Structures are given as structure tokens and as C-alpha cells.
Amino acid sequence: MAVVLERDLSDTEQRLFDYLEQQLADFDLADLGPIEALADRMIAALPDAGAAWGPVVGPVYTSQGLQRWLGVSRQAISQHVQSRRILRLTTVDGVSVFPSFQFDDCGGRLPHLNDVLDALAAGVDDAWTWASWLNTPDNTGLTQASRMWQGDWKLVREQADEDAAAWCRQ
Prior knowledge:
The chain is mainly α.
């Protein structure tokens, strides 16, 4: 099943189509419902990387996209946001978005995010500041979120405590 389009594919697009072809070889796609619905579910799992906030917090999921990808209700996401286990940002036009750095490839959540956000909240109550703090690389090229994924959440929590205290002094 070779993909034929009216334009040339980039190397990345070609690799994606080749990989999908390989992975879908043993599936009977007819069993998965209308092809448009399948495509919509696949697209829902992709974060939006092209928005203006991309350089600050990286790719984000919309609320609807996150619900479809994780297979959970809006209420479940709200509960995770309230307990600071998921970080929600609200755009100036009132749209809820969720930075993708807080999820692994299978939808798992960033370990101990609530502990770190609780510490940051002691200094400033602004989710955009928290997201930027978590996703900005330091002089070693690592972000605080990547350190947390590596298991160094206690070190990140200590840094969050220090930075929150400094924010309070300003």
C-alpha cells in the first residue's frame, strides 16, 4: 500500500507513512469503524506544536484532544488539574491547553508534578510561569521537567522551593 499524494513528502512525512504502513499491516482497519473517525482519534493524540506558546512551553494538547487521547472525561481532567497532577494553561481567548512535556508517550503523567507545583505556587500563582519554569532548559540543556522524568523530582522540588522564595522577595 504505497501512499501517493499530489505533492512530494518530506523525509519525516515519508518515514511516518512507512512506519504506519508497517504497523498497520496486521490490522483489519474496517473493524475500527469509519476511517475518518480513526484518523480523528490518531490526530487527537498529537500535540499542537505550531502555536505561539510553542517556544515557551512546547507543544500542547487541547482539552478535547487530551480527553480523546487519554480516554477520560472533562471532569477527570478537571480533578487532576485541581489536585495539580496535570498542569492546565488558559490562553488569552479562554482556551484550555495542556503542555505535552507533562505526559509520556503512553499518556502517563509527570511524576510528582503536584509536589513541584505546590512549591512554585508558594511564590507565584501563575500556571504560565510554572510551565515556563518547568520547560526552560538550563545551562546544561536540561529542563526541570526532564529531570523529573529522570527521577530527580526531589532536586527539582528543592529548586522550586528556592525559586518560589526568591519570587516572594521581589
